[in-house]
Amino acid sequence: MHVFVTGGTGTIGSAVVAELFRNGHTVLALVRSDASALAVKDAGAEALRGEIADLDVLRAGAARSDGVISLAFGRSYGDADALAQAVAEEGAALAALGEELVGSDRPIVTVSGTPWVPGRPSTEADPLPTDGPVGGRGRSVNALLELASRGVRATAVRMPRTVHNEGKGGFAGLLAEAARRSGVSGYPGDGTQRWPAVHALDAAVLFRLALESAPAGTSWHAVADEGDAVRDIATVIGRRLGLPVGPVPQETFGPFGPIFAMDQPASSVHTRDTLGWRPTHAGLLEDLENIQP
């Protein structure tokens, strides 16, 4: 396939682009800067200049493709207003991409987060939340999946709270950044809450599998670690950075505070059994050993 990829230079996107090439696909990648254009060209992809808010550019990219993988998200979401704007932009982008594919039976794979269910790991059958700080993402993904009835092979890969590579990325990466700023490797609450995680290279394989073969209207979990305790994550970060480890108010983490404080393990049993996905790379706690002081 010739695949249009948005967000193709990020932690997940760069791994997805490489995975697509390794498996015989070609890539048209949305880029917003000269540096990003050079990066995707060096990776063998064609660059299409534009931003996630440029809906006409998104439609043009989708029109030129055999399938779409939508990964782009806003560049700044350090406060509640910025996060809300990023969620709204993503929703408009998904709507534009989906409408361009109506009636074509072409695939589009989008990204969302794994849901949380009190008392147990969430599964692929659990609905996404449609309220709260990122509830808009759930509504946008649900709307895209509903296009299955209009001739779009729309699917969603639900990502865990941390997608990591070489000790960087995801919520664990945000903990490390906060630790560097504050001088304390902190965690909200008592730290026993669990976050699922996956290596970016393993996640990339699942995006390819969904693009190639997942049925329309389905959701999949890119979960390798079902749930690492946040206190354990902070402990590795603190040791690697030479910082004390301890609880901090959830407000320390801005709009992500309430999410950081939640126990949110997730399962990928159905995804593994159905699509044959098998994570093979380092788990989160092992990968965090790559953090540089």
UniProtKB/TrEMBL annotation:
| Region (Disordered) residue spans | 112-136
> One Pfam family name from the record?
Epimerase
Q: SUPFAM superfamilies given for it?
A: NAD(P)-binding Rossmann-fold domains
NAD-dependent epimerase/dehydratase domain: residues covered: 3-215
Q: Which InterPro entries match?
A: Epimerase_deHydtase, NAD(P)-bd_dom_sf, NAD(P)-dependent_oxidoreduct
Name of the protein this chain belongs to:
SDR family oxidoreductase
